[in-house]
Amino acid sequence: MMFDRRLLLNFDYVLFVVMLLLCGIGIINLYSIGASEGSASTEFYYRQLLWFCAGFIALAVFVYIPYARIIQYAYYIHGFFILLLFVVLFMGTTKLGSQRWISFAGFSLQPSELAKMSFIFALTKFFSENISQKPFGLRDLLFPLLLLIITFVPIFLQPDFGTAGIFCIIFFSFLLFIQLEKKTVLPFLGAVLCFLPCFWFFLKDYQKKRILIFFDPSIDPLKSGYQIIQSIIAVGSGGLLGKGFGKGTQSQLRFLPEQHSDFVFSVWAEEWGFLGCCVVLILFFILIYRGFRIAFSSKTFAGSFLALGISCLLFAQFFINICMTIGFFPVVGVPLPFMSYGGSALVSYMIGVGLLLNIGMRKFK
Amino acid sequence: MAVVFNEILLKKQIKTRIRIGAIAVSIFFVFLFFRLYYLQILKGSFYREQSVNNRIRITSLPAPRGMIVAKNGDILVGNKPSFDLNLIPQDVPHIPATFEALAALLSLPLEQLQKKYEKQKGRPPFEPVTIKKDLSWDNMSLVLSKKPELQGVTIDVIPTRHYPNHIYAPHVFGFTGEIDRTELERYAQDSYLLGESIGKFGLEKWGEPYLRGTRGGLQSEVDAYGNRKKILAEVEPVAGCNITVSLLPRVQRCAEELVREHPGAIVALDPYTGEVLAMASSPSFDPNLFTRGINPQEWQRLTTHPSHPLLNRAIQTQQPPGSVFKIVTAIAALEEKVIDPSFTVFCPGYLTLGSRTFHCWKKHGHGYMNLHDALVQSCDTYFYTLAMKLGIDTIHKYATMLGLGEKTGIELPGEKPGLIPSQEWKKKQFKYPWQKGETLSAAIGQGFVLCTPLQLAVMMAALANGSYVPQPHLVVGIDCDKKTFVPEPEKRKPINISAATLAIIKKALAGVVNEPSGTGGKARIPGILVGGKTGTAQVVGKRVYTERTGKLPNHFEDHAWFVALAPVDNPQIVVAVYCEHGGHGGSAAAPLAREIIACFFQTDYHEPQGFQQQEESSDEHD
Known about the structure:
CATH topology of the largest domain in chain B: Beta-lactamase
Largest sheet of chain B: 7 strands, mixed
Low-confidence stretches of chain B: 607-622
Radius of gyration of chain B: 34 Å
CATH superfamily of the largest domain in chain B: DD-peptidase/beta-lactamase superfamily
Largest sheet of chain A: 3 strands, antiparallel
CATH architecture of the largest domain in chain B: 3-Layer(aba) Sandwich
Mean pLDDT of chain B: 83
Strand content of chain B: 15-25%
Mean pLDDT of chain A: 84
Number of helices of chain B: 23
Oligomer: heterodimer
Structural class of chain B: alpha+beta
Helix content of chain A: 55-70%
Shape of chain B: elongated
Structural class of chain A: mainly alpha
Distance between the termini of chain B: 104 Å
Low-confidence stretches of chain A: none
Strand order of the largest sheet of chain A: 1-2-3
Shape of chain A: globular
Strand content of chain A: under 5%
CATH class of the largest domain in chain B: Alpha Beta
Number of helices of chain A: 15
């Protein structure tokens, strides 16, 4: 088979380099955190590096396989991950009071992270195959809604409120890019608004508390309220240039909670200051902008939807996480793509970038 | 062509939306940009100030543990303040110097202080480390007088468990101790802190969720010395719930004094409600040893002591009940109508089954015996005869009906179920069928049959009230800060025994104590009609040992039992007494039952001198 030169011509080097830079920043940042926490956690950056290598291979594979082929099998892939989510629920490893991981050979896999990608595949397949001049009605949306619910429920029960919420965001971001029947939009919004308060009763006490604290931080000044205060101090104290690598007092003295997952950005902001934050912001902006551009120029519906789904996922994770660290969003446990510690998430996002590159390369097909 | 047209139009619509989306995303980015600009550039110096000396601290305020009180309001288990010496590493300018100063001040070895500190290493430097618990007044004032020189050293008042009566029902109330690793993992959801106290034994363990309370805390700003400057927020701790128990302090004290001398247990119940009036186990221990961490030598001594002081003998000893079990055999025979009360057996002192001889405890025999006399004089031959008529499974049915062979469900952890054998059980356990001779042993409470003192007391309660097996319980109320739990009504398991049978049995039990030929004469109290039954549990190996050496060391001595109810016609208390290696039920256990009943009815009665009575000896068989 002749290799099409156009594929190489359309390879989005900017996107690729931006991703590498973000991963690099993430690992440097984890190294700094590890140094502060003593021997127990120096491994974080090292493990993240190993996962990065695994992610790189996954990325290469997902660049090479034409995306249309992946979309073709999307339902099977997503079905497999739903199965895995139920497996986790019944026999997974419990950490920090929730059951999210499958352990093997010293590594643990978090299927809910990979399921984000497969959920995007499945929605892409559905919407690209069913799109027509006629707008989508409520009846047409039953299948993707069902898909959302059976993915949502096992994750919600783990319990992982943040990730479950991300699945809803993925679903609604798809709805933003298709035509809905006028008479569908209102009942749909109405149903969602009615449904949201019902969720309240399914939440665990600590989850309810986190949300209440966001509206009134004085409810729990000892724990979550304190975390947010310490995170804001960390970000603010970075100033223009930051305190320097490995010199952030908030993180080195461990005032910051969850440093290597939810609050990595606070560590970065403290040590590298406003300039460092701007670099991360700009890199993410380029990443997401390039994703939208690829969606814009793709000639197929599948390509556009897939690129949009991935871009929206990256943006939602990024935005919610940063808002959490600056006290603009409840602490719901949404990690920062490429920078928070977590192998499954890193591999999943690298696959996402691989697919964006893939769609960009094959835009003329 | 139409399809292509559609696609182009649709594509155009999507592209428009992507444009809008890109603009929206850009706006969000600009928002984040300005927010970070505000925090880091405009307010940068303010936050830097706050972080340079991060002076916002969280101090945990431990909740006082709930108390255990008697129905009359007496505090049986409470708390007292303890003054703990803490150190906040971040605030200490020079740690070795501070340790030296403290060691000199408190005249404690330097290594001991450092060891405590080393153990806590790896924790955030702003979290206090407890260096010494429970400072004396003198030491505390010494430290306070040097406070300005001891930067980063604080004294905190912590409520600590205290058992005011020292050795007062320690097996029932149990004790608390520092939470260990496995418990931390098991209760991960309940946010326990390292070093926090948790109920480890007895009611303290059972009632942990009620007694614990909710920890509070302070978010405060401190100065360079670690002193609180300003309290930013405070969450008050909520004290744990108080548990009211049914124990009668007076009767409990009597029971403990009675068993103090020798290993054993006494249980007294209210026969109608199943409320535990007294529960004592001996040997005992001081629960105060555990509250602030027991030292290894003391722990070693308690756990390796040959008489196991940590064992609650009232619920954790299972022994053959001996002749006490004849009550069950008699009920089974009457209810199954295999005999009538006048059925008579001649006792020559033994009974032959096939090639084996089963002896009665009275070597020369009791002569002619009817049911009443057989119970009063505890004639083994009579019950061997009933055993052959009944079979083991019928005996099993009645024993189980009376609550034997299964846990009673009292609130104390670690209860043993005892054992009532059946054909099915033996086949499962030994893969060997049941032997007829084993039924004979079982009928007189030997062989496989095992009971706990509590189970026998519960059985007596069922006979006393005549209609149900009550669930024995200690907790009668749980009072919390805002609400009061009413404990679930105790479960009652109905028994199906005719009034006529019960009357015959009760009359015989009264005879055991009050007839001249009865085996339980030492339980007699003038003015109160006590009914009871003696029992003697054989210790395996006794005969072999005696034959070889002629002498009997104490740990081969038989276990003595006595169960009682009083008064027989209107029972208000049932009692089970167990004396480990005490010898015979009539001589060792019956007097204790008398004392506890007398104590309950507040009559001072003591055994007259030179009192004669029948002595039951252990039943001899293979």
